[in-house]
Automatic annotation (TrEMBL):
Location, primary (coarse class): cytoplasm
HAMAP family reported for this sequence: CutC
Pfam families given in the database record: CutC
The organism's taxonomic lineage, starting at the top: Bacteria, Bacillati, Bacillota, Clostridia, Eubacteriales
Family of this protein: Belongs to the CutC family.
Cellular compartments annotated: Cytoplasm
InterPro entries per the UniProt record, alphabetical: CutC-like (IPR005627), CutC-like_dom_sf (IPR036822)
Keywords: Cytoplasm
Protein name: PF03932 family protein CutC
GO molecular function list: copper ion binding
């Protein structure tokens, strides 16, 4: 295991990503599916296999997100999320990652509290739904009150690199009450700068590249199945991870 003075979390969208991240010495893996959609709940099979691969080496926390497109959910969608979270925790996941907002872009107190209670002594992280809240200071106070362990944020920017001053303010406002983790737009060569300016001790990144599936008939078929986006997907780039100290 690589010894760092910060915690490196790698977002993994497949079992091959998990293998890459574990071999690179990631401290923690955020396990999901559909990286292109911002990360959705991983399957039972993916989670079980990931836990077997990472056992004794790397922590696994599961993102619980039943669909893309915002963070306000119907009762049925929330029930799916709750059942998924319960299943992943029972499988042995080290924690769950989630984010619930109400129609006013405030923290959904009831749903968040229920997830914290469900997690028990496992880790809890409120994901980048946090970047959509109206008042981040109030949101930090609420998440502290609810007992959430960690917040993933881009400092309410498309890339955290564009919001380092705000990230520093968030870190200072949290004042050790809750962990602030920097994510979105993180490149290996920028990690030291992010930490130096903001003071955060948790870094999150996908460190991904696009790969293309070989198909001899690709381009010859005149149908939807031959579209380029059906033959490409994101993977964690082992070369990028190798550049991280």
């Amino acid at each position: 295991m690589i010894k760092r003075d910060y915690t490196l979390e790698v977002c993994c969208g497949s079992i091959e990503d998990v293998i890459t991240a574990v071999e690179a010495g990631a401290d923690r893996i955020e396990l999901c599916s559909a990286l292109d959609a911002g990360g959705l709940t991983a399957s039972y099979g993916t989670t079980k296999t990931a836990l077997e691969i990472a056992s004794g080496k790397t922590k696994i926390v599961n993102i619980i997100r039943p669909r893309e497109g915002g963070f306000v959910y119907t009762n049925a969608e929330y029930q799916v999320a709750f059942n998924d979270a319960k299943t992943m925790l029972e499988l042995g996941a080290d924690g769950i990652v989630f984010g619930f907002l109400d129609e006013n872009s405030d923290i959904d107190f009831a749903k968040t509290q229920e997830f914290v209670n469900l997690a028990g002594d496992k880790e809890t992280c409120f994901h980048r739904a946090f970047d959509e809240v109206r008042d981040w200071r109030e949101a930090i106070d609420q998440l502290v009150e609810l007992g959430v362990d960690r917040i993933l944020t881009s400092a309410q920017r498309s890339s955290v690199l564009n919001g380092l001053d705000t990230l520093k303010e968030m870190q200072e406002y949290a004042n050790g009450r809750i962990q602030i983790m920097a994510g979105a737009g993180v490149a290996p060569e920028k990690i030291d700068e992010i930490i130096e300016i903001s003071g955060v001790e948790n870094i999150h990144g996908t460190f991904s590249k696009k790969v293309y599936v070989e198909n001899k008939l690709r381009g010859e078929l005149n149908n939807a199945a031959s579209q380029n986006d059906l033959y490409s997907y994101k993977v964690v780039d082992k070369d990028l991870l190798s550049k991280i100290d």
